[in-house]
DNA sequence: ACGTCGTGCTAAATGGATTTAGCACCGACC
DNA sequence: GGTCGGTGCTAAATCCATTTAGCACGACGT
């Protein structure tokens, strides 16, 4: 609607000063000797005209655009991705920055294109996010540009935001132990023997480590460890249906490696006439949307999407932050854990 | 890594020509009289140096930045939002454009801020998206900037992308009718009498209309229409539990107004010992993630998130497109509909 | 009376591209 | 020989804001 944009020259003209003066005043530079009166006139003129600086023009001169590139392999498929984006968006907004969001589907060609598209627009920094945490290839980037890895790592750019999976793994075990579980505990989704040499993701390895260490410290052992490669509901359902044939009588608790497995497992339990948590307790990971829809609600160790997103933007903005930044995984207690049936 | 960016001047120098010539050649202008040899030299120099134009600088001159602002009230909460974004992202990528994503939480202050942040960066157009379709307030925007409403409408900017809910509503009824259902059909989520005067959302009203018309054409009537204000699983569960007391024996099919209600309802059915689809058929709307996790899978009329997102970018890019653009809602057939038990 | 210093402000360069206006040269034609 | 037209290319302006270098003026000191 409005005609065209107001420029700095317009403001200066209205204030009866040069653009130089107007620029200095609006940028709040303290070392100028401009009069109080000049200040007042410029501020007033800018307000009256509704002046907003042209970020592109400014960026040309200053090399800062208050714009960050957010490059992710996947954005829509998982709630995880959108949580990261939302966290990043919120923090960027607080800091007066803006996000250019790009998706690569994990294809190297598109990754390179995305970086270029971002750099073409003079972004101040780039965030690389992956869903399956891993060492990520990062195309070359000019010197001044901050690079932050979100749920990923890279040798050349040692700034990574990761969930504290080790502590999370421990927390899950602690929850079962605290409820009094000592026996009949099933690990659903992973079997260290069978999966030897297979790589899932950096962070999930840490989750396993946390679980293993905590089990040992509590002096506990799993009744069974079921390897499942794809952690989707149907696989949880299938595995659980099968497992119930052998372990039905001794099963007391399930430590599922994510909520989707837990969801499927619970469907199988329900169909078999077992009740959660009276007969079997369940704890799991991620705090997927599903977890809150289950009946009873699923107790789970949350993947802190949004906190990771905000941490990533913080890291771009603050060059001091460096190294591995671990974001705690909150325990979300719902109603799927109870004391074991004797 | 790389030192600093290569500029057009660098390319021109290497080709032994002026920036003017280099610019014209790289932009493929046909009306110049530059020699074939000059063309070759410039193209070669640009390739060797890895030249990429600075979009900000170009935008300053041309008022085009190949950048689109995507302003949404909510991004992470629903899968719907991220589907829209993904669709938009993909199409933008195809067209060599980039998206600045902004979130407003539906607050007018943040909406205004978001528009300004986008305009400050010289975007070519702005997409306004809402989750609950409605007439949306759009802050003033300069003349040349395209504005497209996504799942929303606005008087001043008559370019709207909307799901074809009317047809979708009809499709749901058709599905039940085709399976042979004539009686014992429950409408779950809305009661026209009780909700008279209450406004849910533009598109949902059309969904109702489609359902109503199709029912009439098939000569059918609902056994009951249950008003539920919040379409969440727990509400579906609660309503269904209650309804079963009265209608258990005659109930044959449920037309749920979204998948979350259907999900809750199905939990109630299962607990009551009724089986889907043998005892009761279910059809619903949205194609929420949940729908594929249910056992059996839920047949549903999909909200075409991604298609809507791509349509929005198309509309920004093509000034010819105008008016209400209706995107079809695909029927996703799974396994929740069967012929009625006699 | 003249140099010095502080005060208040501005001209012009800059960043990287596009675009307008026009220059220099060559051959053809009268 | 002068003019006209075409060919091949470039200087300079422009977009908008920031920044460097420095001008003009008055007061002060000696």
> Which architecture name of the largest domain in chain A does CATH use?
3-Layer(aba) Sandwich
Structural classification of chain A:
alpha/beta
In what order do the strands lie side by side in the largest sheet of chain A? 2-1-3-4-5-11
CATH class of the largest domain in chain A: Alpha Beta
Total strands of chain A: the figure is: 12
What's the end-to-end separation of chain A, in Å? 73 Å
Whole-number count of domains of chain A: 3
The biggest sheet of chain A, with number of strands, parallel, antiparallel or mixed sense and barrel status, is: 6 strands, parallel
Which percent range fits the helix content of chain A? Answer: 40-55%
Could you name the CATH topology of the largest domain in chain A?
A: Rossmann fold
Helical segment tally of chain A?
A: 12
Shape of chain A: elongated
Helix/strand order of chain A, N-terminal first: HHHHEHEHEEEHEHEHEHEHEHEE
Instruction: Give the low-confidence spans of chain A.
Output: none
Going by CATH, what is the homologous superfamily of the largest domain in chain A?
A: Response regulator
- Mean pLDDT across all residues of chain A, rounded? 93
Rounded radius of gyration of chain A (Å)? 26 Å
- Tell me which oligomeric state these chains represent: homodimer
Instruction: Give the percentage of residues in beta strands of chain A.
Output: 15-25%
Question: Which pair of chains has the greatest number of interface residues, and how are they split between the two chains?
Answer: A-B, 59 and 59 residues
């Amino acid at each position: 609607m409005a005609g065209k944009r107001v420029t700095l020259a317009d403001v200066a003209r209205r204030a009866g000063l040069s653009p130089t003066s107007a620029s200095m005043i609006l940028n709040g530079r303290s070392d100028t000797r401009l009069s109080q009166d000049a200040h007042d006139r410029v501020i007033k003129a800018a307000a009256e005209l509704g002046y907003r600086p042209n970020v592109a023009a400014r960026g040309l001169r200053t090399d800062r655009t208050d714009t960050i590139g957010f490059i992710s392999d996947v954005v829509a498929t998982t709630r995880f991705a959108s949580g990261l984006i939302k966290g990043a968006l919120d923090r960027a907004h607080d800091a007066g920055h803006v996000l250019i969001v790009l998706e690569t589907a994990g294809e190297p060609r598109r990754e390179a294109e995305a970086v270029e598209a971002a750099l073409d627009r003079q972004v101040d920094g780039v965030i690389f996010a992956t869903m399956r945490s891993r060492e990520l290839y990062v195309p070359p980037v000019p010197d001044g540009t901050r690079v932050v890895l979100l749920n990923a790592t890279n040798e050349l750019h040692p700034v990574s935001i990761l969930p504290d999976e080790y502590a999370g793994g421990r927390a899950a075990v602690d929850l079962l132990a605290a409820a009094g579980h000592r026996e009949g505990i099933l690990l659903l989704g992973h079997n260290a023997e069978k999966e030897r040499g297979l790589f899932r993701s950096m962070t999930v390895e840490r989750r396993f480590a946390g679980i293993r260490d905590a089990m040992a410290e509590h002096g506990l052992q799993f009744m069974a460890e079921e390897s499942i490669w794809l952690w989707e509901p149907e696989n949880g359902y299938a595995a659980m249906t099968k497992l119930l044939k052998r372990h039905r009588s001794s099963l007391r608790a399930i430590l599922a490696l994510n909520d989707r497995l837990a969801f499927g497992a619970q469907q199988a339990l329900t169909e078999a006439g077992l009740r959660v948590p009276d007969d079997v307790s369940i704890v799991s990971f991620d705090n997927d949307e599903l977890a809150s829809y289950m009946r009873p609600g699923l107790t789970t160790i949350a993947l802190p999407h949004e906190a990771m997103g905000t941490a990533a933007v913080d890291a771009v903005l603050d060059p001091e932050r460096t190294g591995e930044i671990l974001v705690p995984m909150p325990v979300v207690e719902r109603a799927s854990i109870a004391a074991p049936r004797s």
